[in-house]
Amino acid sequence: CDDVCSTEGHNYSPMGDVPERMELFQYHPVKIGHVRFVEVEPGRYVQMKTLAMHPPIFEIPNFLTHGECNYIKRVASESGLETSKTAFKGSLSNNDGHSLMSHAHVHGYNETFWKEQIAPCDTDNDFLLDQDEALRCLPDLRRQNVTAAMLDLMMGDLELDYDSDARFDAKEMWHISEVPGVAEDIRQWLDRWRREGEEGRMVKKWKGRTRVSDQTWISSNTVNGHPLQKIQNRIIALTRLSPEIVQTSESMQVVRYRPGGHYHAHFDSSEVTSDLECRHTAITFNQSEETPFHEERCRYCRMITILYYLNDVDQGGETAFPFADMDPESPEYERKLQYDYTDLTDHCHDSSLVVKAERGKAIMWYNHNLDPETGWLGTSRGHSLHGGCEVIRGVKWIANNWISVDDVYARQQRYMDKLRPFLRATPSHSNLRTHKITETTPDRSQSVSKLEKNTNISSYSSRKDANDKQEPVEPICTPQMYDET
Ligand SMILES: O=C(O)CCC(=O)C(=O)O
Ligand SMILES: [Fe+2]
Q1: For position 149, which CATH number holds?
Q2: First to last CA, the chain
Q3: How many angstroms separate the CA atoms of 55 and 248, rounded?
Q4: How far apart are CA 443 and CA 47, in angstroms?
Q5: Domain span at 440
């Protein structure tokens, strides 16, 4: 086997010979509007409301305090956020948007351009222009008082730096100087800069790009009582999973979108298949010089997504689930297949569930079913397709925690055995058997914005009707679903 993530040569039995079997848990959503109060710290309850049944999506206002939101944004900013290089929509084998761009932008370029127009600005003769050198060749920008630092930011925002080396090569200079439309983008960028300063900076919309955002990963250090550890304890209590599963999941991802930023609809977790291994367990064991880690040959095994909104967004930036609760047999579903429903710059508000970004709120959903036979991670939930709508005004900050579980039980177990010595002790109140959950009848508060276009599920009350027709709900996920009140 020469790839970390191909499974050839690995022979795991789905159920190893284990002394005590780990268990997974999923809340039953019960019905839309159903509310639970979950004790996430001694005496501190959060409200968890069902927003959708398929997949189960829950909304938890004030899961994070304002201080925690600020803390996460600060740590992420200090660690430095990187611009997303997620693929272009519709690109064929292209995993890297930049390479696609480079084909587009070279069209029309010719070699004399460098010699005649750019080489004179290349004072150190390295065939690359830094920002000061580039400004020498861009008299229009100089006249508008663009500084080297501004040009640096602009080249990131407008995606003028295709190879992300923070320097301009000949083709990049050609693109800036000659390609129709770029001058207009630059003009708009400067307008915005002058009006709104750095926060309002314009990000090129690249509608065709799957994701326009900056992100980074942050993790807690070992100091007890670290803010991220407190949040992790709350996740343990909220998800009712073992502390070990939560602690061995990915660290927190922090994402910032500027105006124009978005993340077209996608799945956070991959289809379960025996051809590829889960990234999180594969990376821990199989990597060596002979078996390099091939990201693209792994799959994501993320049972749960917990997404936190770290600020209120002035306009736009909702999280949309185009197919939540939609009946695949319905005409609305059929209609949705006729257009590019993944494009959340154009079709955000055609989605059947749209969640507003509100500081401190978390939403949690299940990307997979539990296998009815084994109770372990099962098939992926097709309705969990989702994404971030375009930010129209303001900046949107979110963070993600993904709870990773390998569908091959023995592989998850081996992974946790390896990491166990590094795990911290968690307070007993995080333990799923001791914390309290109370349930109430559905309320009718309006935290979900329901959308009218192209769907007859047009309001919260018509959702209620849909609810009323549902079969009486039995707990089907795990036996301990309703064992507390
Ligand atoms: O920004 C959002 O609302 C969604 C983000 C998302 O889906 C992700 O980061 O995977
Ligand atoms: Fe996502």
Answers
A1: 1.10.238
A2: 51
A3: 24
A4: 12
A5: 35-84+211-482
Q: Please, which residues bridge with residue 437 across strands?
A: 38
For the CA of 317, the nearest atom of ligand 1: 3
Radius of gyration (C-alpha) of the chain in whole angstroms: 25
ipTM of the complex: 1.00
**477 token code pair:** 């996920």
- Are both 72 and 196 inside the same structural domain? no
Q: Are residues 157 and 186 in the same domain?
A: yes
Pick the residue whose CA is nearest to atom 7 on ligand 1. Answer: 387
Whether residues 344 and 432 share a domain: the answer is yes
The model's pLDDT over 80-107, given as tens digits with 9 standing for 90+, comes to 888 765 554 443 223 333 333 333 344 5
Where does a domain end: 200, 224, 258? 200
319 with 467, same domain? yes
**pLDDT single digits (tens) 39-62:** 999 999 999 999 999 999 999 999
Ligand lying closest to the C-alpha of residue 356: 1
- Closest ligand 1 atom to 318 CA: 3
Q: What is the pLDDT of residues 286-314, one digit of tens each?
A: 655 555 556 667 899 999 999 999 999 99
Both tokens assigned to 383:
């309705």
Chain segment 372-392, per-residue pLDDT in tens:
999 999 999 999 999 999 999
Query: Could you tell me whether strands 298-299 and 437-440 are parallel, antiparallel, or unpaired per DSSP bridges?
Result: unpaired
Domain count of the fold of the chain: 2
Asked whether residue 254 is domain-assigned, the answer is yes
Please report the pLDDT score of residue 291 as a whole number. 55
Nearest CA to ligand 1 atom 1: 388
Nearest residue (by CA) to ligand 1, atom 4, is 388
Percentage, residues of the chain above pLDDT 90: 51
